[in-house]
Every structure is written in structure tokens, then in C-alpha cells.
UniProtKB/TrEMBL annotation:
The chain crosses the membrane at residues 12-33, 70-95, 107-130, 158-182, 203-229, 268-289. This is sn-glycerol-3-phosphate transport system permease protein UgpA. It is a multi-pass membrane protein. It comes from Tistrella arctica. The lineage of its organism: Bacteria, Pseudomonadati, Pseudomonadota, Alphaproteobacteria, Geminicoccales. Residues 71-285 form the ABC transmembrane type-1 domain.
Length: 295
């Protein structure tokens, strides 16, 4: 029987939730309000003056071909990162979950989780040096098999490189949750299916995947946010949005227009559009995709 805790009065409950409320206000609500306010202003780059222009910044952003190009790059980039990181995490978890020796399994788990401890900028720098067209060992190996690798001047190769680097960084995070989900599945279900004649592939598709659907749904939401926002350090370390604008995603364009171009109003408008876009996609996932999740 579950034990319930009753508070006498409201002072203690409010005190317990106050830190979280304060953090939410300081690091989400207040910046969001400031971004919305700034998106309706045309400001001097040095802060000497501003003009209220209503939605002109949004109209200019949506009419900008460069922004539409960044939108397309973001769609390809985020889809690739999400699919590769989820697939890689699930495959790695399934392989390590099948290791019967405890010491070997512990070693494999530690090795699989290790990349998540690396800072995104460091991970980007690592992949940059590995595939550097001049001194990179990865570029040298590709050259040996006849692939001319130079992501500095080839936009498709640059986009592929940042997708791989970002996905590699996130695989460890997905691995932890998928492994926990796999280990929570009752072995009796798998043994009963094996007795009934179901092979490993059939057991995985018909039993394991449906039972992992809550974990997979959670990771889809998290990985989507990661691909849109947290991959900025990787892109900045590897390509800086180049060559040209080949790897310029929406979040990188916000940085480029705001901190390099000093167009603060349009940069703020882009951040508001990005925030609404991600929030809308999250709502759609909870509204329609969650229906297919088996809890």
C-alpha cells in the first residue's frame, strides 16, 4: 500500500518547489520574454538606440532565402542525427545486453558511456582533426580506398561530418536508456516466446520493440531538441557553418546573424521562430506519436 505524505499548510510545499520555479523563470521565461521583446525592435549594434517595428523582423526573416536554406539544412541534419543516434544507441544496448560475463559487460558499458562525458566542442574538434583533409588519419584512410575527402570545400561532406560527429556524441546517452529498458523486460517473456518457436529476430520485433516504445518515444523528443539546439558547439568546432552555408543550421544562423552580423532584431526573431517550431513539433509528437506507445 502506497504511503501518502500530507503537508499542513502551504509554506513547506511552496518552499520545496520554489528553487525549480525560480530556475525556470530565470533561465527560460525571462529569456523567452526578452527574445520576444527584442524581436520587435530594430536596434543599434552598440545599443545607442532602438525602434519598435512590430513584426517587420519576422517578415524579413521569412522572406530571406538564406533562412529558408538554413531551414532545409536543419531538416536534413536533425533527421540524420536523430536516426543515427537512436539506431546506434539501440544496437549498442542490444549487443551489450547480450554479454553474459559481468566483468566484460561492465567494461563494455563503461566504454559505451564514455563519449557522453566529452564536451560537445571537444567532440567536434576530435572529429575535425580525424577527418582533416591534410593531416587527418580518417581522411588518409578514405584516400586509400579512392574517396577524395575534403570537407573544407565540399558541402555534402561537411554536412555528413557534422551529422556523424553529433550522432556519435549522443549515442552514449541513448545507450543508457535503451539498456535500462532492455534490462527491465521480463526474461520469462522472451523465454516463453523462444519455447513457442520465435527466433531472435522475431522476439526482438514482436516483444522487445513494443516494450521499448515508451523509452524510444522519450528519446525521440530528447534527441529532436538535441539536434536543434545542443549541436551548435559541434558545428562551430568542425565547420563554423561552412563551406559557405552548407552546414548553417537554424540555431547557428541565430548566432551568426546576432553575434557576428550584429543584427539583433532579426536574430531574436529567428530564435522565437525556432522556439515555436520545436515546441510545436513536441506537441505534435505527444498528440499523435504517443498514441502508438504501449505503456
Amino acid at each position: 500500500m502506497a504511503k501518502r505524505t500530507l503537508f499542513r499548510g502551504t509554506a513547506l510545499p511552496l518552499a520545496l518547489v520554489a528553487p525549480q520555479i525560480l530556475i525556470t523563470i530565470l533561465f527560460f521565461v525571462w529569456p523567452a520574454v526578452q527574445a520576444l521583446k527584442q524581436s520587435m525592435l530594430i536596434e543599434d549594434a552598440f545599443g545607442f538606440g532602438s525602434e519598435f517595428v512590430w513584426f517587420e523582423n519576422f517578415e524579413a526573416v521569412l522572406a530571406d532565402p538564406g533562412y529558408r536554406h538554413a531551414f532545409g539544412v536543419t531538416a536534413v541534419f536533425s533527421t540524420g542525427v536523430m536516426l543515427l543516434s537512436l539506431t546506434g544507441g539501440l544496437l549498442l544496448a542490444a549487443l551489450i545486453d547480450g554479454v553474459t560475463d559481468k566483468r566484460t559487460g561492465s567494461l563494455y558499458r563503461a566504454m559505451a558511456v564514455a563519449p557522453y562525458a566529452i564536451a560537445p566542442a571537444v567532440a567536434g574538434a576530435l572529429w575535425f582533426f580525424i577527418f582533416n583533409p591534410t593531416v587527418g588519419i580518417g581522411a588518409h584512410w578514405l584516400d586509400l580506398v579512392g574517396i577524395d575527402w575534403n570537407h573544407v570545400r565540399n558541402g555534402d561532406q561537411a554536412l555528413l561530418l557534422v551529422v556523424l560527429a553529433s550522432a556519435w556524441k549522443q549515442i552514449a546517452y541513448n545507450f543508457v536508456f535503451f539498456l535500462a529498458g532492455l534490462q527491465s523486460i521480463p526474461r520469462s517473456l522472451l523465454e516463453a516466446a523462444a519455447i513457442d518457436g520465435a527466433g531472435p529476430r522475431r522476439r526482438f520485433v514482436s516483444i522487445v520493440l513494443p516494450l521499448l516504445s515508451p523509452t524510444a518515444f522519450f528519446l525521440v523528443v530528447v534527441n529532436l531538441a538535441y539536434a536543434f539546439f545542443d549541436t551548435f558547439p559541434v558545428i562551430h568546432a568542425v565547420t563554423q557553418g561552412g563551406p559557405g552555408v552548407a552546414t548553417e543550421t537554424l540555431v547557428y544562423k541565430v548566432f551568426k546573424d546576432g553575434f557576428i552580423g550584429l543584427d539583433l532584431g532579426r536574430s531574436a526573431a529567428q530564435s522565437v521562430i525556432l522556439m515555436v517550431l520545436v515546441a510545436g513539433m513536441t506537441v505534435i509528437q505527444f498528440r499523435y506519436v504517443e498514441r502508438r506507445v504501449h505503456y
